[in-house]
Amino acid sequence: MDFGFTAEDEAFRAEVRAWLSEHAESGQDRRVWERTLGKAGWIGLGWPEGGYGNRTVGLTQQVVWAEEYARSGAPPRSGHIGENLLAPTLLVHGTEEQKTRFLPPIAVGEELWCQGYSEPGAGSDLAGVRTKAERASDGTYRVTGQKIWTSLAHEADWCFVLARTEPESRRHHGLSFLLVPMDQPGRVDVRPIRQMTGTSDFNEVFFDGAHARVEHVVGGEGAGWKVAMSLLGFERGVSTLAQQIGFATELGRVVQAAVRSGAVGDPVVRERLVRQWAELRVMRWNALRTLGSSGNAGAPSVAKLLWGGWHQRLGELAMQVRGAEAGVGPVAWSPAAPYELDEAQQLFLFSRADTIYGGSDQVQRTIIAERVLGLPREPKGVV
Q1: 240: number of CA atoms within 13 Å, CB side?
Q2: Which of helix, strand or coil describes residue 146?
Q3: pLDDT at 29 over 80
Q4: Cα(43)–Cα(56) distance, rounded to whole angstroms?
Q5: pLDDT score at 297
Q6: Fewer beta carbons within 10 angstroms: which end of the chain, N or C?
Q7: Non-local CB neighbours of 23 within 8 Å, separated by 6+ positions
Q8: Element (H, E) at 227
């Protein structure tokens, strides 16, 4: 793929840098920041023009925005699930009423979303979801069940939920994709999950008869699996390039730590540092090569395998170059107190999950084997 930036793209880059330099502040309230982005028209750049309040730019300028945002040190996004996952799904599968209702609040940063997919017994095997949605006498749905590893559920106004609307249905049959409001006291309970790092980036969400409106079923009742799989196709794209900017920053810190500790004098460490750098460049060119391509069913899985393993190895390398100082443990630990970890220790601990979340390595290899290489399908156990 001949991927390059034009003079127009570079002018756009200068505009992005100037705006971020003026407005972005670390530690800023994330909901306020979403509204600031929306007011300036920076949300929904990849959406088509449709009167939703977004600003539309081409693919190369979307890459410019993602990369410059990652370099700027701007606050982490709270609205990316709505912008990059739900919105493209509604544009493909939603009704005009659903697009008109939900896209404008996302575009101005007023409504935040979370993703209700994984469950304690249905993580990588998403077709095993047990959360159910039953039609009530008033025509609405009552959603009952548990979701887990739900990012930003504690901040979200809405959750898109994959639930079983056909009683006794199995696997990917009888599922529906519902839009459920989170502000339902007594019916929606969000509980943070404490991680090894001492932080709580994920949550458990319990639905106890939560209300969902019939007109908020995306794609129609029973089409949940199709809609859910379509959404996962939007999960990796331009954002992968922004992720790689963050990876490059982390690699730079590991290199600096190796120089400070003297570990860079070890030829094995030097070889690992160079390999990490080279592999990151390969990931970038692979992402650019497949950007905007929908013809290769295995491309997202290949990308996930590449970056998951790479980031996990970087965490291990961060510990190696630190030597004895890398000992991971809490300072004055108590059940209520967070761990006191530095950036390298947090990198190591968090990256242990990179090959599991977002589809484990085993699942990605199965997808490549079956959908790309045409190998026999893996046997499924009796459910």
Answers
A1: 29
A2: strand
A3: yes
A4: 9
A5: 62
A6: C
A7: 36, 40
A8: helix 224-233
Q: Which residues pair with 192 in a beta bridge?
A: 203
pLDDT confidence bin for 50, thresholds 50/70/90: confident
Q: Say if 304 falls within a structural domain.
A: yes
For 244, list phi and psi in degrees, rounded to 5: -70, -30
Same domain assignment for residues 206 and 268: no
Cβ–Cβ under 8 Å, residues 53 and 228: no
Catalytic residues: 235
CA-closest candidate to residue 93, choices 233, 294, 292: 233
Three-class secondary structure of residue 307 per DSSP: helix
Residue span of the structural domain in which 131 resides: 113-222
| pTM summary value | 0.81
Task: State the pLDDT at residue 175.
Answer: 93
DSSP per-residue codes, 165-220:
-STT--TTTTEEEEEEES--TTTEEEEEE--TTS---EEEEEEEEEEE-GGGEES-
Where does the pLDDT of residue 42 fall: very low under 50, low under 70, confident under 90, or very high at 90 and above?
Answer: very high
Considering the domain boundaries, does residue 324 fall inside one?
A: yes
Number of neighbours of residue 265 by Cβ within 10 angstroms: 10
Does the structure show a pLDDT above 90 at 93? yes
Q: Which of 128, 112, 100 is nearest to 35 (CA)?
A: 112
Sign of the CA dihedral running 10, 12, 13, 15: positive
- Boundary (domain end) residue, out of 176, 193, 222: 222
Answer yes or no: do 217 and 245 share one domain.
Answer: no
Domain count, the chain: 3
Q: 158-164 and 113-116 as β-strands: parallel, antiparallel, unpaired?
A: parallel
Nearest alpha-carbon partner for 223 in 274, 281, 178, 167: 178
